[in-house]
Specification:
By secondary structure, the protein is an alpha+beta fold. The chain has one domain: Immunoglobulin-like (Sandwich), CATH 2.60.40. The chain has a five-stranded antiparallel β-sheet, covered by helices on one side. A three-stranded antiparallel β-sheet has the order 4-6-7. A hairpin with a 4-residue loop joins β2 and β3. α1 runs antiparallel to α4. It starts with a helix and ends with a helix.
Amino acid sequence: MTHRFRMALLGLALSAALPAAAHIEVFTTSMSGPAEFPANTSPGTGASTVTMDFDALTMRVQASFSGLQGNTIAAHIHCCVPPPPANPTAGVATILPSFTNFPLAVQLGDYDFTYDLAAASTYSSGFLNNAQNGGSVANAMNTLAAAMRAGNLAYFNIHTTSFNGGEIRGFLAPVPEPQTYPLMAAGLGLVGWAAARRRVRPA
């Protein structure tokens, strides 16, 4: 097998190891009171999944929460947290005053709604018109996606009557796609094989 062919095979395996659904990204978080700023002692917990489909230009927001001390008054995604030493909080990036049809005046509930990423109404006016985001829907979408990819710049926040600034929150972070692991392992295996072949090649 020629060196050029081995390198082509290696490149093919590594490219196949990239996410199969490269235009769909999933982000998750667990929410709690201690994760708020400032931290609180709420026994409430929650979880959220945000799925962005860049082909269909949709964002599906799913959440489940329980044990809150106060009744819900709002929920949304905040972005983007400034670098330290600033306070780890940010303005609201998504629709105001709350997610569409989010369960309000309750202490537990579930949520599932799909938004149009190409619609200005999906974003708060402050986030959409922020000069840093370029003042366009496309740039707002890309800024929000990049913040969630970072894992520590955008957070899901649930506000209640007991904690107006937020009773539970969690930073959204990307979820690796399980189907890519075998392909990535195969690609790395080929890297090792090629390196071994070079080591044992006669002088």
